[in-house]
Structure formats: C-alpha cells, structure tokens
C-alpha cells in the first residue's frame, strides 16, 4: 500500500560537476505525495542536474528528505528502490527489444523480485498504460525519437516507484502522445506518488501540474500554483520574453509569447503580398 503522507523536502541543496557548481543552496517548500510538480526554466538552468542530484547521479550536499529517508545519505541501491528516473535521452546502440529493455529496467532495481513470466506481465502492463504495447517486440534502435521517449518512460514506471523524476518526457511527442503521457503522470500522482517533471512547454506545465518551480541559474525564482509562478514578470526576467498570460475559467494560465524582449520589431508584410488565406484576383 502506498504511503501518501510522504513529502520531498529540499534544504540548502548544492549540486554540480567537478569545477562546475550548478545548484546553490536550493530550498523548496515540501513537494507533497499525490502532486505533480513541473520544473521549468531556461536551458542550462540546472533542471536535469537537480533531478540527477535527487537520483544520486551527481555529487550533492545539503539535505533532501523523502518521508523518513535522508535521501542524499541513502545507499544508491536503496535510492533506486524509491526513485524512478527518466533521463533526457535513452542510450543508443542497445540491441534489446522494447519488452526486454523494460524487464531489464525492472530487474536491475529489484533483482529476483518477480519470476520471469510475472516480470514480463508487469512490463507489458506498463507498455499498455502508455499505449505502446504494440512496440513490445521491436528493437530499441529502430524506434522513432518519440517512441524511444515513451519506452524510456516505461523503464522508469515499471518499478512503480514512490518518487518519479521525469526529464522532458514529452519533448519529442506528438499532441496525442503528450496527452497520454501527462494523463499517465497525473494517474501516477493520484496513487500517492510524488512526480517531478521537467517541461519546456509552459502551457503543458500549467495544464497538468499542481505546482510549478521556476529554476534560473540553479536557484528557485518562483514556486507556487501555475498561476502564481508563471507571470509576465517571471517570463520577462527568466526567459527574456514578452508574454501575455490569460487565465482560463478554471484558473489555469495560458501563456502567449509575443516576442523576445531585446529583439527588433517584426517587419510588416511587404506591400503587394496577399494575406494568407486570400485568393489572388
Ligand atoms: N556532465 C557535466 N559536466 C559538467 N557540466 C555539466 C555537465 N552536465 C551539465 N553541465 C552543466 O550544468 C549546467 C546545467 O545543466 P543542466 O543539464 O542541469 O541544465 P537544464 O536546465 O536541464 O538545461 P536544458 O533545458 O538545456 O536541458 C549547464 O551549464 C551545463 O553545461
């Protein structure tokens, strides 16, 4: 039975690479179980580094607690038991079938937990949940970019982790698959998990996340509901764009980017060029 009271707390977290500090003294309000948190911010803000710090894949100092666990001091095997991490890209050159790769992802973290047939059943259920059971026997190397992304997500989900860290799970997906993935993300959170998802599409974040953390230069510059965190002022300060934000009837903000703040004005259409959709006389 999933414990729903667990929250992820981050206190004075610093993380980075040798000679390259990225996250500095980060403090976040507790991220509760059952909620989807979108992590947004410009390129190189430190979003992937933060997820990797939670997962134990980069050097980190400070304090991150998850329920009773002191995450940064937990041995990697114990962390792998709690956390499902979907990286930005799937490694190339792996000659496994989709199904074999998802079974392998399960067995890597829970060796011997299920007999072969049960592990296979679980892997197929996971593929089915993401609408890609028909890819089960395809070789990883022959998949499209979007299919690879869905398989990578299946590898993170198959262990049913309590903390799910997804790095841009929708960046290569068509509209229909974006919805499939975000619905799956919401369903996973509804089961009591904590989901932290890196997204570049702010409207996707606004539509699907309960809260948004805006990261810039390794610091959280806005945290709150989508409407609180995604303001014109934040988009100007952090992304350098002029944006109009409208609020839908359910309070969900919609972001329309009008241009770069330092860009020259867009020239008017040249005279004599018929507007689109007009029929030339
Ligand atoms: N392995 C590494 N070694 C050294 N520096 C790295 C390494 N990986 C990332 N960095 C640096 O850390 C900083 C943050 O990178 P990170 O990948 O966390 O950003 P991000 O917010 O996820 O960016 P993006 O939106 O472009 O994916 C960048 O300046 C990057 O160059």
UniProtKB/TrEMBL annotation:
Coiled coil start-end: none
| Molecular functions per Gene Ontology | ATP binding; ATP hydrolysis activity
Keywords of this entry? ATP-binding, Nucleotide-binding
This protein's record includes keyword Phosphoprotein: no
Q: Which Pfam families match?
A: ABC_tran
Which InterPro entries did the record assign? AAA+_ATPase, ABC_transporter-like_ATP-bd, ABC_transporter-like_CS, P-loop_NTPase
Q: Does the keyword Nucleotide-binding apply?
A: yes
Name all ABC transporter domain ranges.
Answer: 2-242
Positions of transmembrane segments: none
Q: Which domain of life is it from?
A: Bacteria
> SMART domains this protein is in?
AAA
PANTHER family annotated for this entry?
Answer: ABC TRANSPORTER ATP-BINDING PROTEIN, HEMIN IMPORT ATP-BINDING PROTEIN HMUV
As for family, the record states: Belongs to the ABC transporter superfamily.
What name appears for this protein in its UniProt entry?
Answer: Iron ABC transporter
Tell me which species this is from: Rhodoplanes roseus
Source taxonomy lineage? Bacteria, Pseudomonadati, Pseudomonadota, Alphaproteobacteria, Hyphomicrobiales
């Amino acid at each position: 039975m999933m414990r729903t009271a667990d929250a992820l707390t981050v206190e004075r977290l610093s993380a980075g690479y040798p000679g390259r500090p990225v996250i500095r003294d980060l403090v976040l309000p507790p991220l509760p179980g059952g909620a989807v948190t979108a992590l947004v911010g410009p390129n190189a803000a430190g979003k992937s580094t933060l997820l990797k710090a939670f997962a134990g894949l980069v050097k980190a100092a400070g304090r991150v607690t998850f329920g009773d666990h002191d995450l940064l001091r937990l041995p990697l095997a114990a962390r792998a038991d709690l956390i499902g991490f979907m990286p930005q890209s799937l490694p190339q050159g792996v000659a496994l079938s989709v199904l074999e790769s998802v079974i392998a992802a399960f067995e890597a973290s829970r060796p011997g937990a299920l007999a072969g047939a049960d592990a296979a059943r679980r892997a197929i259920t996971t593929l089915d949940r993401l609408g890609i059971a028909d890819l089960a026997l395809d070789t990883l190397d022959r998949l499209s970019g979007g299919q690879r992304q869905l398989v990578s997500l299946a590898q993170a989900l198959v262990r049913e982790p309590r903390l799910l860290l997804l790095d841009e799970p929708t960046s290569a997906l068509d509209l229909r698959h974006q919805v499939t993935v975000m619905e799956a993300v919401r369903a996973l959170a509804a089961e009591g998990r904590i989901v932290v998802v890196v997204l570049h599409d702010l409207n996707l974040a606004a539509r699907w996340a309960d809260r948004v953390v805006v990261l810039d230069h390794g610091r959280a510059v806005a945290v709150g509901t989508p409407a609180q965190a995604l303001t014109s002022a934040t988009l100007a300060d952090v992304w350098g764009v002029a944006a109009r934000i409208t609020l839908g009837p359910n309070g969900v903000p919609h972001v329309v980017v009008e241009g770069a703040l330092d860009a020259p004005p867009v020239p008017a259409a040249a005279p004599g060029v018929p507007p689109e959709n007009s029929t030339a006389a």
